[in-house]
Amino acid sequence: MFEHEIDDQLRELLPRLRRFALWLTHDTSSADDLVQSTLERSLLHWHRRRDDTALRPWMFAIAYRQYLDGKRRSRRYTRMLELFRGSAESEQPSAEREVVAQSVVQAINLLPEEQRHLLLWVSVEGLSYREVAELLNVPIGTVMSRLSRARSALRRLGDGEVSKTPTLRVLK
What we know:
Blueprint: H1 3-25, H2 28-44, H3 55-85, H4 95-100, H5 103-110, H6 113-124, H7 129-136, H8 140-158
Helix pairs in contact: 1-2, 1-3, 2-3, 3-7, 6-8, 7-8
């Protein structure tokens, strides 16, 4: 693949990558930082790419892993600060954001993180089940069943149910 083709593909991918980062972080500056670190990491490890045609899932996988690493780092840092302060301060979401947010976005935000990410990858970003399966390193059937549960949960939330966790049936 020629250098100008790679540049063109990366330029085309940037808006989608930024949108995904924004969904993950819910903050524009954090999303920009995530996109930048994703690009840096991808360029640093460009030689490790396995498939020239699968640039998009590879970049989304890098972004997702960068996001998870950042969350872990943040949790460790927060725990250390709490130990030094001696108290745990919790942040409550502002009422303004709840009023302004659309009902669909609210319902998606109520979903568990894994379900939310699956819905975003498949429904918003247009990744195939196979691409998501490779991204998560799980069988394609697992992706399909998790996505089905995510869509069912979203439907229930849209119908007004507020329960986040499904009830388990007792088998006899």
